[in-house]
């Protein structure tokens, strides 16, 4: 299955997916990485890994629709079947959602619906909750909403610093995202919260 990865920043999740593909753990091909920020580190990572990278910002367009239509053009030209958001810090609009409904997934560093948004790890840490986690979900028009595919909990211990919690979460993300992608790609079935497959196949077609 040919995927496109959307990222806005560091790109460590993109790299873990690319490495899983290179190691033969994930039967997929990254058609391209799309980045909305030319100074993001993910651009350098993609170039080093020889993976095509497309970079432009919504500021270059007169509307969100025009911006997303340009992205859609690249998705269509490259026969992309699944969009994988990996730190893409924008709300996806109707232009992309209509075409990629149930074919777009996201990873978020909290146990959604708790702590959505840009600062999921920090907000959980500051709220002094005893556990947070990682969520992978289908994308809808909300901020980190949409049907949950898989969650994994991460304990926050009394002595943990924010940096320690961030490190624990990223470590899980880098394992979990390729694992879940593998389930979706190889089984082509809905992968539920508790890890059980269903035959309803309603989320991913
Ligand atoms: C990841 O922790 C991801 O879960 C988060 O951005 C980070 C990107 O890291 N996504 C969100 O917060 C979405 N609301 P990366 O650029 O190193 O992959």
Automatic annotation (TrEMBL):
Residues 1-181 form the Formyl transferase N-terminal domain. (6R)-10-formyltetrahydrofolate binds at residues 64, 89-92, 106. GO terms for cellular component: cytosol. GO terms for molecular function: phosphoribosylglycinamide formyltransferase activity. The active site is at 108 (proton donor). Gene3D superfamilies: Formyl transferase, N-terminal domain. Pathway: Purine metabolism; IMP biosynthesis via de novo pathway; N(2)-formyl-N(1)-(5-phospho-D-ribosyl)glycinamide from N(1)-(5-phospho-D-ribosyl)glycinamide (10-formyl THF route): step 1/1. N(1)-(5-phospho-beta-D-ribosyl)glycinamide binds at residues 11-13. The record marks 144 as: Raises pKa of active site His. Pfam families: Formyl_trans_N. InterPro entries: Formyl_transf_N (IPR002376), Formyl_transf_N_sf (IPR036477), GART (IPR004607), GART_AS (IPR001555). PROSITE patterns: GART. It catalyses: N(1)-(5-phospho-beta-D-ribosyl)glycinamide + (6R)-10-formyltetrahydrofolate = N(2)-formyl-N(1)-(5-phospho-beta-D-ribosyl)glycinamide + (6S)-5,6,7,8-tetrahydrofolate + H(+). Its EC number is 2.1.2.2. It is an enzyme of class 2 (transferase). One of its GO terms (biological process) is 'de novo' IMP biosynthetic process. Keywords: Purine biosynthesis, Transferase. Catalyzes the transfer of a formyl group from 10-formyltetrahydrofolate to 5-phospho-ribosyl-glycinamide (GAR), producing 5-phospho-ribosyl-N-formylglycinamide (FGAR) and tetrahydrofolate. Belongs to the GART family. This is Phosphoribosylglycinamide formyltransferase. It comes from Enterococcus rivorum.
């Amino acid at each position: 299955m040919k995927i496109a990865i959307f990222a806005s920043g560091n790109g460590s999740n993109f790299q873990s997916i690319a490495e899983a593909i290179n190691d033969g753990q994930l039967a997929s091909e990254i058609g391209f990485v799309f980045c909305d920020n030319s100074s993001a580190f993910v651009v350098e990572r993609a170039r080093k890994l020889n993976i095509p990278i497309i970079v432009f910002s919504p500021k270059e367009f007169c509307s969100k629709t025009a911006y997303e239509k340009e992205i859609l053009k690249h998705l269509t030209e490259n026969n992309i079947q699944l969009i994988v958001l990996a730190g893409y810090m924008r709300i996806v609009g109707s232009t992309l959602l209509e075409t990629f409904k149930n074919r777009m997934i996201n990873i978020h560093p909290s146990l959604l619906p708790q702590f959505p948004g840009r600062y999921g790890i920090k907000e959980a840490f500051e709220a002094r909750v005893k556990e947070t986690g990682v969520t992978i979900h289908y994308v809808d028009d909300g901020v980190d909403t949409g049907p949950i595919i898989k969650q994994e909990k991460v304990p926050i211990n009394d002595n943990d610093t924010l940096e320690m919690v961030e490190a624990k979460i990223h470590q899980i993300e880098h394992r979990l995202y390729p694992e879940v992608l593998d389930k979706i790609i190889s089984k082509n079935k809905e992968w539920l919260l508790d890890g059980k497959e269903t035959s309803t196949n309603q989320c991913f077609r």
